[in-house]
Amino acid sequence: MEITPMLPEHAAEVLGIFRLGIEGGNATFDTEVPTWERFDAAKTPEHRFVARDAERVLGWVALSPISPRPVFAGVAEVSIYIHPAAQGRGVGRALLGAVIDSSERGGVWTLQAGIFPENAASLHLHQALGFRVLGVRERMGAHTFGGRRVWRDVVFLERRSTVAGRD
């Protein structure tokens, strides 16, 4: 497995993995896959990576700014998606580790993540790499999935840099 920067040539596979996350029901409130242009515009270019084997993209990770306000320039939200066939093989750990490293080099002092409580594997991964649970945001949003609307809780986590933002 190789971790490389996410490039436009990865678009179809990245969005395909995102689609699988939507279809799984426990990865996102989104109900449709964005265009590459919309996806690309929302993610920080220097903090997005794919994991590849010789043949395909196994997963991806990307940071998004939480606000355009300058005071929040060092705070970003993590998105990470792993192809179902690649889960349990260390792909998530490698990707999350890569984006943590790039964020610290890039001056990001806080990473945050919102994860459905049912997504135990993602919660475990984030906590294993230094994220701590701040709380549960109850009934955070109405999720339309499988033809019905359900209120979902979101576990809110953050990771504070030990390097960036310490001046």
Give the biggest beta sheet.
Answer: 7 strands, mixed
The sequence of SSEs as H and E is EHHEEEHEHEE
Radius of gyration: 15 Å
Number of strands: 7
Q: What's the overall geometry?
A: globular
The termini sit apart by 36 Å
Strand percentage, roughly?
35-45%
Contiguous runs where pLDDT drops below 50 for at least 5 residues = none
Tally the helices.
4
Strand order of the largest sheet: 1-2-3-4-5-7-6
Q: Report helical residue fraction.
A: 25-40%
Mean of residue pLDDT? 93
How would you classify the helix and strand content by structural class? Answer: alpha+beta
Q: Could you give the topology of this structure?
A:
Layout: E1 2-5, H1 11-24, H2 36-42, E2 48-52, E3 57-65, E4 75-82, H3 91-105, E5 110-115, H4 120-128, E6 132-145, E7 148-160
Parallel strand pairs: 4-5
Antiparallel strand pairs: 1-2, 2-3, 3-4, 5-7, 6-7
Short description:
This protein is an alpha+beta fold and 167 residues long. It is built from four helices and seven strands, in the order βααβββαβαββ.
Can you offer a commentary on this structure?
Helix content is 27%, strand content 35%. A 7-stranded mixed β-sheet has the order 1-2-3-4-5-7-6, with helices on both faces. The termini are far apart. A hairpin with a 4-residue loop joins strand 2 and strand 3. It is α+β, with helices and mostly antiparallel strands and 167 residues long. It has 4 helices and 7 strands, in the order βααβββαβαββ.
